[in-house]
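seq as requested:
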Amino acid sequence: MGPLIREYRQDDREEVRKIAVEASASAGYPRSDPRLLADLLTNYYLRYEPEHSIVAEVDGRVSGYLLGCLDTRWCRLLKSLLVIPSATIRSLPRGNLGLKELRYLATVIYVSIRGGLRQKSPRGYPAHFHVNVRSDYRGLGTGTSLVERFLDILRENGIPGVHVRVRRGDLKVAEFFKSFGFTRSVGYPVAVSNERGPSVSWSVIYVKEL
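struct tokens:
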């Protein structure tokens, strides 16, 4: 029996945040403050667009999630004005923002100047989402079920197209999205952080017309 795919509820919040932090282990984010990382990854979607977030449940446990947005421009605006400043300020008393994190933020500014950070969605593809599944529940079709449900939500809302971000070289994830009919669009620079410190990498946008 497959997972139950349902709408996000407020009491799912902590489980969604845990999965987000776990899944970010290989994504190049600084991890010295998991609460800050969870805030940056999930707060927009769970606070300002929760009706477009869905979860997978197995035996009463959240096994995965999809956080979606119908208008990336609005998401970017609220993240810049509200989500990122608020999350950063709340993290200061915890004392976890060190030199590595400050260098990462400087790298973010650098790649932004170079045209990175996906400031605009591709024309005709305003929606976006990110999907993650708990490591011990992968291989059960959970990610597929979540994406299929979200694509139905977009069609019901008359959204013309959707895009996703894939790290360059992540062939497994790229093939996953291609299986839904996504095609490669453009690449752009992004900031990543690893044991050697922050650096510049690349991500690729994949798009799908609905």
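The chain is about 40% helix and 30% strand.
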